[in-house]
Records
---
Amino acid sequence: MTKVTMVVNGKSVSAETEGRTLLSGYLREGLGLTGTHVGCDTSQCGACVVHVNGKAVKSCTIFAQDVAGAEVRTIEGMANADGSLGVVQQAFQDHHGLQCGFCTPGMVMSSAALLAENPKPTEAEVRHYLEGNICRCTGYHNIVKAVLAASGQDIAAIPAE
Amino acid sequence: MYDFEFVKPSTIAEATKALAGDGAQALSGGQTLLPTMKQRLAAPGTLVSLNGIAEMKGVCKGDGGLHIGAATPHAVVAKEAAAHYPALAALANGIGDPAVRNRGTLGGSVANNDPAACYPSAVLASGATVVTNKRKIAADDYFQGMFTTALEEGEFITEIAFPIPQKAAYVKFNQPASRFALTGVFVAKYADGVRVAVTGASNDGVFRWKEAEAALSKDFSAAALSGLTVDSSDFIHDLHGTPAYRGNLVKVLTARAVAAA
C-alpha cells in the first residue's frame, strides 16, 4: 500500500492506495466522498467526472497514484462557503435538471468545466460538451436549460420539449 | 483488475530503465489501457506512467514541422496546434468527449494503434516522424496492422513531428456510442503530392489510399475521385457497417475532406 496525498476541495488529504486504486475509489472509499458516482466504470457515462488541476476528467479511468499531489475538486466542493448551493447546482434545482440524480454530480462538474472555458455557451455548445455525460432518465432538455441559466442567459425562448 | 506496481519516472532516461524490466508496461493517458486492464485483457506487473515527464509534453514548431510531445493531451493539441496545423487540431478536438480529451494523449493513441482511432490517420497522412526513446521511425514504417506497430519491447514514443501541409482536413463518420471513427479519412496536400490516410475501415488498421493520392496530386478536387473504386475485400465487418458500406464511406469522406481542406 502507498499513501497518496492530494488537495481535495481545498483541503490536503491522504489515503492508502494500491497501484490499481482508481481516483474514483480513492475519493469514495479512501476519503468517504461518495458524491462522485460510478455509473459504468468504463469511461462512457461521465457520472464520475471530477476536476483535476482544473480540468474535467473521468475519475474511474485514472489511477490515484498517477495524480498524487494534484488539486482535485468534486461535487462536495461545489457548494458556496455558507453551505448554500453553488450557481450550477442551484440552476439544476431551479430548472429540474435532475430526475433520479445519479448522473447529476458528473453533469454539474462537466457543466462547471464548460462554463469556466466558455462562460456564455450556445445551446449547441452545451449539448456538444455534455456528449460524454449520459442521463439514463433522458432528462437532457432540462439539464441543458439549467446550464444555460447558470451562464446567466435567458432561457425563456428554449422550447420545453 | 489485477494489482501491479506503479512507478512514475520524471525523465525519459528513468522511464527507459523502468520499462526494461520484465512485465513492465507504459501508461500514458490510460483512456484505453485502464478499460483493457479492468477487463483483464492486460495485466502488467509494473505500470510505468509517462505522465510525469515534462520533456514529453507540449507543442512547438521546429525543423520537422509541428513537434508534439507524446504525453500531450488531446485538449492541449486542440488548442495549441490550431494556429499551425488546424486540421490536426480539429481532429484532436473530435476525439472522445471533453473529459477524455483532457486525459488521453497523442502518444498513447499512436502506440495503441486502434484500427478506429483518429490520430493514426493524421500521422500517416502527414508522413510524420515518430520519435521514440531509441530512434526515429517514419510513419510509413511505423503502422504494421491492427494494434501492431514498429515499437519494440521497452520502446515508447516521446514525440511526433508533423510536417505542416499546404492544405488538409480530417472527416470522420462518428460511431456515436464509442465516439471512435466508424470510418475516417485524413487528406493532406504537400508541395510534393497529396497523402490520404484511412482509419476505421481496414482489418489491417490505418492505410494509405494510394489511387486517391495519385488522382488528387494531379487534380486536388472532389471530382478527381469520381472514377475510383475502393477495394473493401479486407474491410471491417461488424454490426455498425459492412465492408461495402465502409468502402463507400471511404470515398464519400475523402471527397468531403478534399472539399473541406
---
Amino acid sequence: MAAPLPPEVVLRAQQGDRAAIEALVRRFLRPAYLVALSVVRLPAEAEDLAQESVASAMRQLEACREPARFAGWLLTQVRNRALNQLAARGVRQRHADSVQAAEQGADDLERVVLRQQLLAALEALTAQQREVVLLHDMESWTHAEIATSLGMSEVNSRQVLSVARKALRAKLTELDNGGTGHG
Amino acid sequence: MDDERINFSALEVPAGRWEALVQRTLERSRPAPPTVWTQLPRLRGAVFALAALALLSWVPALSWSNDELAETAADPAVALMQYSVSGDPTALLESAHGW
C-alpha cells in the first residue's frame, strides 16, 4: 500500500514545486486510471482520460482549496470527465472499441481472454462498485482511503467491496463455463 | 464477508507503457506561462503607484491660475494643458498660429 501523501506536498505543488507535482502525478495517476476505467470500461480510453484529467488538475492546482482532500478532489474531476466522455459516445461503439482495445493492448491470447472476461464481468457492477473493487484490489487502497476519496463511510466501503467481489466471481464463473455474458 | 482479492493482473498496464504515460502526463502538467491578466494582481502595487503618480502630476496643473497659464501660452505644451483645464481652444489656436 502506498503511504498517504501529506497535504504539504499538495501545498508545495500549488507553489510550483516540480518535485511535488511529480510526486502527486506518480501517486495518483493509477487511481485516476482505475476510476476512469470503472466508468468507461475501456483500458486504452481510461489511460487517455487519466492522463488528461491529472494533467489538467495539475495545471489548476490552486483550485484545490483543501489539500487534505486532494484525492477526492482529483478523482471527482476524473469521474466527471469520464462520464462526459461516456455520454458523448454510443454504447454500441463503446463495445466495439472495447473488443478492439483489449485485443491490441494484450500480449497473448490467454491475456486477451482474461482481459475480456474481466471487462465483461465488471459490466455487471455499478460504477461505484467498480471504483471500490478496483481501488482496493488493484491499488491496495484501504477502506479509510476509499471512504475519504469517494465520500462514503468505511463500513459502506466494506459492504460495497464484498457485494462487488461476489458479483464478479459469479460473473467470471459464468463466463468460464461458456456463458453468454459478453453481450 | 468476501475477503479474497480478485486477480485483476490482466488489466494491468505494462510497466514500460505506464512509465511513458507518467512522462506524458508530467509534460502536460506544466502550468501555462503567466499572461498579463493573471499577473495583474501581483502588479497591483506598481499599478497603484503609477496611477498615483499620474494623478499627482495633474495637481499642479489644476491649481495653476489662468493668468499663469496665459503668460506661457506661447508654449504649445502649456497651451494644450490650458485647453484641457479650461476647455477654451483660444490659447491652443493662438499657439498653433505662432508655430
